Records
---
Amino acid sequence: MKPVTVPALLASGRTADVYLVDDRRVLRRYRAGGDVAAEAEVMRHLRASGYPVPAVHRADGPDLVLERLVGPTLAEAYVRGDVDTTDGARLLADLHARLHALPAARSSDPDVRILHLDLHPENVVLTPAGPVVIDWANATEGPAELDTAMTALILAEVATDRDTPLSTPARELLVGYLAATGPARLLAGAATLRADTGPLDAARLAEATALVRGLSAG
Ligand SMILES: Nc1ncnc2c1ncn2[C@@H]1O[C@H](COP(=O)(O)OP(=O)(O)O)[C@@H](O)[C@H]1O
Ligand SMILES: [Mg+2]
């Protein structure tokens, strides 16, 4: 009789559990169910365009079988002190700039770009071959500055959280990120989206938004 094997749980994010399939592949499964079809489509498009995303082997309901990435997240490397603030901020800004340089898959409007809308240090894996962007659940098409405003806002959410030792490093990263990208012009739009998709209540979100606005004003 063939023994039953239970795949090893590699990581649990906010929405998904990630299991090891074998040396080269992982299974990323949404805990709440759902359909990964759109996410898989954008990842395949980006990979074909030369953007650093994991290869998609299979997409089925809430399950994605992905190329396994090996390396720390940018968040882990930054907290350990292996990546400094300037390099971490520039890396996030550079990954955005490279994404927004690509033509959209659906729209032919030159001002419409592919957006990640959740590009923060936990969604960047530092592999030996270079940084790779994961977690394309929120990806869509729209104005590039909405994406950069969203990253600034997500960093500000951590920076304004009094209950985490990460607030100071997050604030430093936010300052560096805004220095690299320029002021967050589409902040109001990002805040509206984040009210629906993010973890914070209205008062906390307003606090984070105010920090980005203040820093953007110089
Ligand atoms: N392709 C992959 N290879 C190895 N680990 C991965 C891969 N994709 C995700 N992970 C791990 O799983 C965690 C959660 O994945 P993520 O896609 O960010 O889901 P969530 O929406 O839950 O944040 C990541 O922080 C990372 O540690
Ligand atoms: Mg994630």
---
Amino acid sequence: MSPSEELESSIAAAFDLSARGHDRFAVDRFLAMGSVLVQRAGLREGEHVLEVGCGRGSTLLAALDVVGENGSVMGVDDRPGMVQLAGARVRARHVNGSDVRLDEADKPNFQPGSFDVVLANLMIFQLADPAAALRHYATLLRPAGRIAFSTVAAPDPAFASALVAIGRFAPKLSAQRGPFRSEAAIREFLAEHGYERVAITEDVQETRFRDPEHWLEWVWANGGRELLDRVPAKSLPLARAAAFDEIEAARTPDGDLVLSTAVRFTVAAPKTPARV
Ligand SMILES: C[S@@+](CC[C@H](N)C(=O)[O-])C[C@H]1O[C@@H](n2cnc3c(N)ncnc32)[C@H](O)[C@@H]1O
């Protein structure tokens, strides 16, 4: 086991999480948001689509439904388990040129001009250098190509408070992702890195959890791993308890635990085709 795998498994154990849980909990939420992203990207029959950070492949499958057998979808993810899962789901559809590869989302290795659309569903803010990634995606696009990505516009207040509670045990966490913090910031960032015709829309997505454990499994599986990784092992039980207090406070009188997240969907085209 590598040091990072060891760290991950000790965090998983401390939080009572499992690899199986990691795979189980993402589905509905990403399917819903991925379907909206596919719709906002204006995908058309016959188009060739790349999704970076494709996870289990829910968005890829939604894209495949639209582009059909004359088009294709290609996914990349840096987690072998995700690549295996998403790859099996995509290959089961038997559409030529459609597959999933293990690769880095910030510089996926494809020929210039390979795709009509590059999608990134709730992951672009996880990249170390999103500006470099955007410039690279422009080279992968064909004429009239576009990128489409979703980001969190406003988390549910209970969700945000619970993450802040964990963050108190995780020093040096930057809660807000600079270039994606607002619509104006996204527009400025895209203009600065060679994109135009920017269209931004918002939707509120509800996520229903059985209990705080279920919520934590979801956090673990989706982006929150970065936050949990920063909590020192000895503080994990306290961090968990503090977060659960915040999440419990969000229960409705009926006992439901529903978090509403405002999600922002951005579509843009490279200013000048960056093909070779
Ligand atoms: C929040 S999930 C997104 C799920 C997926 N986009 C969907 O719509 O179903 C983020 C995914 O991005 C992947 N990821 C994060 N950083 C990455 C990187 N630098 N390179 C490749 N994949 C990455 C994670 O492994 C995870 O599967």
